[in-house]
Specification:
Helix content: under 10%
Number of helices: 0
Distance between the termini: 35 Å
Shape: globular
Number of strands: 20
Order of helices and strands: EEEEEEEEEEEEEEEEEEEE
Strand content: over 45%
Radius of gyration: 24 Å
């Protein structure tokens, strides 16, 4: 899954306007591009599974350097950066290759039960990029400058110590007859004080077994409600069969769904 594209842009501006570089672009840009990606942006670790990894991908003809560091989390959650070890903090990924970013949850013996959150910022840059700065000849001095924009890909790591995935409450199917995009939706709630929910959700036809959609259901600590929409397919004016919402408390899904609610 491609999450971000990195660009290197060339601007030419009058020398006296150099300090206005970010707001006054006086020439057409010339682009040199680099594409990077990560295999996932959510990781859940607990007392049973204390290690995990994601992939750092360079999808370009040049090597890319990745740097990974922790950033601040919202005040409403507990920062767990002191409980997590990740490696490497900095790595060089060859062209069109990937490299693992490994993580280990290390809770001390006196750690209080709860969910701790770590936000990692994955920054990347081309290692062969050289800024081009020159002052051309002419009556009015001008500066030609290459600017490298380095994107940051966010990764959220949930560390669960002696707690389990919260229970969800699923409402009855709510039709939306006037919406051209969806037939309706199921409303999912969790207790406002509960920890996050990271699981799998699927919409399955009750009679045919056909899958309407499937993916990850994520509700952070600060979120207590989500709506799962039943998409309206082309020329599908009404539902031809009841649709069932299946939920697993893990991603990817394992075993039978923990909850199942049908529209009819």
């Amino acid at each position: 899954m491609r999450l971000m594209m990195q660009r290197f842009t060339h601007y030419a501006i009058p020398f006296g306007l150099f300090m206005l570089l970010l707001t006054a672009l006086l020439a057409s840009p010339a682009f040199a591009q680099i594409s990077v990606s990560i295999t996932d942006n959510v990781v859940v670790l607990d007392n049973r599974q204390r290690s995990g990894e994601i992939g750092l991908l360079s999808m370009t003809a040049d090597p890319v350097e990745f740097q990974v560091e922790a950033v601040d989390v919202p005040d409403e959650v507990i920062d767990g950066r002191d409980l997590l070890r990740w490696t490497p903090a900095r790595t060089l990924v060859p062209a069109n290759r990937s490299s693992p970013l490994r993580m280990v949850f290390r809770p001390p013996s006196d750690l209080a039960p709860g969910e701790y959150v770590v936000r990692l910022a994955v920054q990347s840059r081309r290692v062969d990029y050289q800024p081009n700065i020159a002052v051309p000849d002419g009556d009015e001095p001008a500066m030609s400058m290459g600017v490298a924009i380095q994107p940051v890909l966010p990764v959220t790591v949930y560390l669960r110590h002696q707690v389990v995935s919260p229970e969800l409450t699923i409402s009855k199917f709510e039709p939306a007859p006037d919406d051209d995009r969806v037939h309706g939706f199921f409303r999912i709630r969790k207790h406002p004080d509960a920890i996050s929910f990271v699981g799998t959700v699927a919409l399955i036809g009750q009679d045919s077994g056909n899958s309407y959609t499937q993916g990850r259901l994520r509700m952070g600590q600060t979120a207590d409600e989500r709506r799962v929409r039943v998409p309206r397919l082309a020329d599908d004016e009404v539902l031809s069969e009841p649709v069932c919402l299946h939920i697993w408390p893990s991603f990817p899904a394992r075993g039978q769904p923990e909850q199942r609610v049908c529209s009819g």
